[in-house]
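Q: Given only this backbone (173 positions), what sequence would you predict?
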């Protein structure tokens, strides 16, 4: 294959980003049903609850950025958590246009009951890997996360600058 990138449906279906998205969906969908059945919340709602619990006083904007959900989805989830008395909103003392979010005692208790199941499911998902493979996998995930967060945006911008608006590569000068 060398420097030449193959394209087409087969290659795209086998791309690592497609595989990662598929793996995540295969893990999240059945887990969401289990969490909903046991705790009345799905995994996305629990993710929001955990983020608020881990970062007391987080604003909606910060929350939406960290969840990586669409803002409307984050807003719907947050509304359900507030109506369920799992999260409370307070006016930001520094800026009355903003609200800060806090987990309630009820929300914290529910999170503490759900956390062991999260760990158990993660262990089950990774159970086909040896301890060494799990450590390698975590190290690789951390490395990719750091790269994607810190350096990838600039590299992506350079790549974008090398293409015309029609999507063809600019000729080298």
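A: Predicted residues:
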């Amino acid at each position: 294959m060398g420097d030449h990138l193959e394209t087409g449906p087969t290659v795209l279906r086998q791309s690592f980003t497609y595989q990662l998205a598929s793996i995540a969906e295969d893990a999240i969908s059945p887990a969401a049903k289990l969490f909903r059945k046991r705790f009345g919340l799905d995994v996305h709602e629990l993710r929001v609850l955990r983020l608020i619990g881990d970062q007391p006083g987080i604003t909606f904007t910060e929350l939406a950025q960290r969840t990586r959900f669409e803002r409307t989805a984050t807003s719907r989830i947050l509304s359900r958590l507030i109506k369920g008395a799992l999260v409370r909103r307070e006016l930001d003392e520094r800026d009355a246009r903003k609200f800060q979010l806090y987990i309630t005692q009820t929300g914290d208790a529910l999170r503490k009951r759900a956390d062991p199941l999260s760990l158990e499911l993660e262990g089950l998902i990774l159970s086909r890997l040896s301890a060494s493979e799990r450590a390698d996998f975590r190290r690789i995930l951390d490395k990719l996360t750091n790269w994607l967060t810190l350096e990838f945006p600039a590299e992506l911008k350079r790549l974008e600058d090398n293409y015309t608006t029609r999507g063809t590569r600019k000729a080298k000068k």
